[in-house]
Amino acid sequence: MKSWLFTIMRNTYNTAVRLKLREVTGAERCISENCSTSANQEWVSRARELQDALHEIHPEMREVIILVSVMGSSYEEAAEICGCAIGTIKSRLNRGKAQLLEKLGEENRHSVLETPQQGRF
Fold it and tell me: So what's the pLDDT on residue 88?
């Protein structure tokens, strides 16, 4: 039994060492530096369209979209920054996204702003 357990422990250790060598974490260089592909022309063009459309909507809605959708702030944080109620933030975000989609010529928000959730169309 002792030799059998020793063999299992040795094999487990060797497997862990091999995995560590293959999957180095905390490397000196950032992983993003290894990415050599640049944005293709379509994405650059689409980003310009989105930026232009964002500047065409009402400033209050633009501020909420940037705070919540881009910067990832919670509704509570956005409400505190804007000095209004959480319901107002939700309303501005919803109306702002709708206006943004209209300016971009999109039919639904799943195509640009959000990934579709399972079970919803």
Answer: 93
Q: Is residue 15 part of a domain?
A: no
Please state whether 22 falls in left (phi above 0), alpha (psi between -120 and 50) or beta: alpha
Q: Is residue 28 part of a domain?
A: no
**pLDDT at site 118:** 47
The answer for residues whose C-beta is within 8 angstroms of residue 55's C-beta and 6 or more apart is 62
Which residues are within 8 A (CB) of 47 and not within 5 positions of it... i.e. 6 or more apart?
39
CATH number at residue 84: 1.10.10.10
Residue 55 belongs to what domain range? Answer: 45-107
The CA-CA-CA angle for residues 31, 35, 38, to 5°, reads: 145
pLDDT given for residue 104 in this prediction? 84
Classify residue 121: in a domain, yes or no: no
Determine the Cα angle at 62 with ends 70 and 89, to 5°: 85
Residues of the chain with pLDDT under 50: 112-121
